[in-house]
Design brief:
The protein has about 260 residues and is an all-alpha fold. Helices cover about 70% and strands about 0% of the residues. The protein has helices at about 1-10, 20-55, 65-90, 95-120, 135-140, 150-160, 170-180, 185-195, 200-215, 225-230, 235-245, 250-259, and strands spanning about 10, 15-20. The chain has a two-stranded antiparallel sheet with strand order 1-2. Helix 3 runs antiparallel to helix 4 (about 95-120), helix 5 (about 135-140) runs parallel beside helix 8 and helix 7 packs across helix 8 (about 185-195).
Amino acid sequence: MQVILIFVYGATESGTIQISEEALLLIEQSIGLLTSLLVVPIAIKKVYDYQTYLRENYSTLDHKDLKWLRQALYIKYGLTLLWLISFSLGWAGYSTNILYEIITLSLAIVLFGMTYFLLLNYHLFQIVPVQVTEDSQETIEKKLSPKTDAYYEKLMGLMQDDFLYKDSSLTLSMLAERLQISSGYLSQIINEKDQKNFFEFINRYRVEAVKKKLLDKEFEQFSIMGIASDCGFSSKSAFNSVFKQFTGLTPTAFRKQHL
């Protein structure tokens, strides 16, 4: 017991008892580690849920996608695990001062980077509130109605005849309003009929439209981005990412390969 008290408290020459630096460091690291190990996984899960929500409700993720934040959180969690190893080794009596300083500096850089993007570039990330209404939730839980096929045919007409996918701002709620059904029911129809979420469903049409024009000699003089914009893509980065996701090729490589 006396050994523990000596570790936790240090007696000065004047006899005043103070908490030792070792004890303060132990308390500081314990709180920091515990907080990071508990909070970071929760934050990663929240971002993942948000990404899922976006893909279920939006056809374009420009200025909404927070994948960068999830990647930064993964890095932070990895550094936290290294911190835990360093802490354990230090507790076992090994010297980990250099490792601890490297981890501390790395964590500071990651946190600074996250803060920089959030504060200085906040206008790039138009956060969309995640809201699930009781009506949409109840609709999802119900079985598809006998009218499902009729709604699906009407949906195909809006895509293939009215080219609704060309609207870069198209959302699930906007499309559901055109069909006069709930967003939850429309999402269920798309998931069960096409095995895709809303983002994949709409962008499949956009990519197919781009592919068709890239192979059409009438559009040889058009730039690839000009074609992409006409088919519903609002930015070059988003277009390139989605096109490669569906075809396995960049738009330029696809055009060269087929012409």
